[in-house]
From TrEMBL:
Keywords: ATP-binding, Glycoprotein, Kinase, Membrane, Nucleotide-binding, Serine/threonine-protein kinase, Signal, Transferase, Transmembrane, Transmembrane helix. It is found in: Membrane. The keyword Signal applies. This is Protein kinase domain-containing protein. Residues 3-284 form the Protein kinase domain. It comes from the Eukaryota. Pfam families: Pkinase (PF00069). GO terms for molecular function: ATP binding; protein serine/threonine kinase activity. ATP binds at residue 31. PANTHER family: RUST RESISTANCE KINASE LR10-RELATED. It comes from Eucalyptus grandis. InterPro entries: Kinase-like_dom_sf, LRK10/LRL21-25-like, Prot_kinase_dom, Protein_kinase_ATP_BS, Ser/Thr_kinase_AS. SUPFAM superfamilies: Protein kinase-like (PK-like).
Length: 327
């Protein structure tokens, strides 16, 4: 299928992805998995999750291998690869041109529609828990598809929260309730947080945490951009050429700021996010700045654990000064 693994498309902590072709001529991406936990839980998880789906913004699983030590997934081939190649300045080359604002908007809308389907459109609700640019694939027309369901969790649609034994996801995109108890329950709103952080990176063209900026105040982009919005200052974004581009970028920023609110109850659901994206930017109120407040509990030991968990989450997300939490 892969002609002895001749053409490598990419790699990650999971293993390698190779380009292949089926007997009928259809191109595929074959993901060979390594360093799996237990009995290959991640493979079973992905097959169980993605086999339940059928949506234009969710990647199609065409087959899998689960034989002995061999673990592989066969997906539809996506011509333009992952989103991260097109949004971060360090990754953009002549081959991967900077995307226009209209294209970025359509990608953000497509991802939102895919997540809305996973949360509300399936017989069982699927929580992804690893939404990030690397896991968004683009076809030849830059239509986005959500991929990599290795950390996904399937739950009944009527359940609003799920129980979790530990945090899931990638540093920088993990919702605080996955680490800090007492903020709120783990639910589909955790994916909303990850989506908001990702859209913020699409807008800025940089990681949300950028240590190589000129001013310390600019290190955490969401706080910096929120302050500019409140003061009605120029946002200083790249590639803004007309009023339409300006409106698109502002809309994406405001929606992403709503999505990364610390309290899950303050975040919109993905259905509301889709409606906001399709609506007018003038109708969108600017949300309050997302600040972490640790709820006090009666037990000093429990409160210490809460503060320690908050410090760990902030360390991995670099979102605020630790002294503000531990004081």
């Amino acid at each position: 299928m892969t002609n002895s693994f001749q053409e490598k498309l990419g790699q990650g902590g999971y293993g390698y992805v190779y380009k292949g072709k089926l007997r009928d001529g259809q191109l595929v991406a074959v993901k060979l998995l390594k360093n799996l936990k237990g009995d290959g839980e991640e493979v079973i998880n992905e097959v169980a999750s993605i086999s339940r789906t059928s949506h234009v913004n969710v990647v199609s699983l065409l087959g899998f291998c689960f034989e002995g030590s061999k673990r592989a997934l066969v997906h539809e081939f996506m011509t333009n690869g992952s989103l991260e190649k097109f949004i971060f300045k360090s990754n953009i080359s002549e081959a991967n041109q900077q995307l226009r604002w209209e294209t970025l908007y359509n990608i953000s809308l497509g991802i939102a529609q895919g997540l809305e389907y996973l949360h509300r459109g399936c017989n069982a609700r699927i929580l992804h828990f690893d939404i990030k640019p690397h896991n968004i694939l683009l076809d030849q027309n830059y239509c986005p598809k959500i991929s990599d369901f290795g950390l996904a969790k399937i739950c009944p649609r009527e359940e609003s929260t799920v129980s979790m034994l530990g945090a899931r996801g990638t540093a920088g995109y993990i919702a605080p309730e996955l680490v800090i108890r007492g903020i709120g329950g783990v639910s589909h709103k955790s994916d909303v947080y990850s989506y908001g952080m990702m859209v913020m990176e699409m807008v800025s063209g940089r990681k949300n945490i950028e240590v190589e900026v000129d001013h310390t105040s600019e290190i955490y982009f969401p706080h910096w951009i929120h302050r500019r919005l409140e003061l009605q200052e120029e946002l200083g974004l790249r590639g803004i050429t007309n009023g339409e581009d300006k409106g698109i970028s502002k809309k994406m920023i405001i929606i992403s700021l709503w999505c990364i609110q610390i309290d899950p109850r303050d975040r919109p659901g993905m259905t509301q996010v889709v409606e906001m994206l399709k609506g007018s930017v003038e109708a969108l109120p600017i949300p309050p700045q997302a600040n972490l407040v640790i709820p006090h509990v009666k037990s000093p030991r429990s409160n210490y654990r809460q503060q320690l968990a908050a410090a760990i989450w902030c360390y991995f997300n670099n979102c605020m000064n630790l002294s503000e939490i531990l004081s």
